[in-house]
Amino acid sequence: MVLLQGKVNIDRSAAPGIRPMHIITSDLRVQPKNNYAETDADARANSRDDWIESTGMQIWFAERIRVKLLAKVRGRYELE
After folding, report:
1. In the predicted model, is pLDDT for residue 72 greater than 90?
2. CB within 8 A of 24, min separation 6: which ones?
3. Residue 22 and residue 16: Cα distance in Å, rounded?
4. CA nearest to 45, candidates 31, 63, 65
């Protein structure tokens, strides 16, 4: 387990069929062997004009990224 204390930025570049994503959070606990990270802190994810915020987040870094938002979730998503 790796603990990233303080502000943490996670970036995913755009690729064919995949939108870019930028996540800002803090105090992230990372399990590199499991491609997994989590935090109890506030988190915000931006992808182009879309955004989502929550308190607490779980994220799996696999072939397809998966994010679980835990509480106080709000956001904006526009259909293309």
Report:
1. yes
2. 7, 8, 9, 10, 43, 44
3. 17
4. 65
| pLDDT tens-digit readout, 11-68 | 988 889 888 989 999 999 999 999 999 999 999 999 888 999 999 999 998 777 888 9
Listed in order, strand segments (DSSP E) in the chain are: 2-12, 21-31, 36-47, 50-60, 66-76
pTM of the model as a whole: 0.80
For 32-63, b/e burial (b = at least 16 CB within 10 A) is eeeebbbbeeebebebeeeebbbebbebebee
What six digits make up the tokens of 34? 């499991």
CA distance 17 to 7: 29
